[in-house]
Amino acid sequence: MKVTFEYDKEKDIWCLLNKGKSSSHSQKPTKQYEQLIEKYGDEPGEEVSREFVENYLLDKKVLTKECVNAYQQDWDSVSFEFQSRAESIFETALSINLKAYLTINSRCPYSLEENYFFVTFPTNNYIARRTVMHELWHFYTWQIFGSEQLERMGAQKYGDLKEALTVLLNIECADLLTSDIKDNGYPQHQELRQRITEFWINDKDIRNLWDYLANQ
């Protein structure tokens, strides 16, 4: 499994328009989407969004190729160790290659069907590896639980569990995230993440953990 970073302006526009306003786990618009509608109105189209993206990159002095290279180099430095740990936990390997598309949007969706996810351009203390690990955790989760569990428990519960499960990154990959970076999760999942942490301390079996959560 290899993650390759890339910037595709059309993907960036799609991400902003389709995921900037809201998502399944948050109805709050991203800061970038708020800036977009403030300038162009409540129903921005692709052309004005393209103009917004281009101006945003210029205003922030973002050098897309340099960011792509920096993210690739940073991820490559920890990818082998991350995969080793993830494969040990999930007892499976991802046999796919994935694209990580850069976006100005601070919300980063992913596609199981097309094997890609988004990462945000650098802001403050953001580093791409946190998002990469978070999204790959979803791919590992899908590979061993996937459609069977989605059908069994429904989209809402499956979505809550797979999002909360990323708290394990703070336990198993803390050194790879770096000392001041954590996977924080959504506010509505904090109690669930705490239960996952408490269970994991005593039983580091991902299937036992999932069964415990699914039957709650």
Question: Could you describe the 3D structure shown?
Answer:
- This protein is α/β, with parallel strands linked by helices.
- It is built from eleven helices and four strands, in the order βααααβββααααααα.
- Strands 1-2-4-3 form a four-stranded mixed β-sheet, with helices on both faces.
- The radius of gyration is 18 Å and the shape is globular.
- The mean pLDDT is 93.
Topology of this structure?
Blueprint: E1 3-6, H1 9-19, H2 31-40, H3 46-59, H4 64-90, E2 98-103, E3 110-111, E4 116-120, H5 128-144, H6 146-153, H7 155-164, H8 169-172, H9 174-177, H10 190-202, H11 206-214
Parallel strand pairs: 1-2, 2-4
Antiparallel strand pairs: 3-4
Helix pairs in contact: 1-3, 4-5, 6-7
Mean pLDDT across residues: 93
Give, in order, the helices and strands. Answer: EHHHHEEEHHHHHHH
Question: What is the CA–CA distance across the termini?
Answer: 33 Å
Q: What's the number of extended β-strand segments?
A: 4
Q: Which shape, going by the Cα principal axes?
A: globular
Q: Beta-strand percentage? A: 5-15%
The Cα radius of gyration reads 18 Å
Largest sheet features: 4 strands, mixed
**Major beta sheet, strand line-up:** 1-2-4-3
Query: Which structural class best describes the helix and strand composition?
Result: alpha/beta
Helix content: 55-70%
Unreliable stretches (pLDDT < 50, length at least 5) are none
Tally of alpha and pi helices: 11
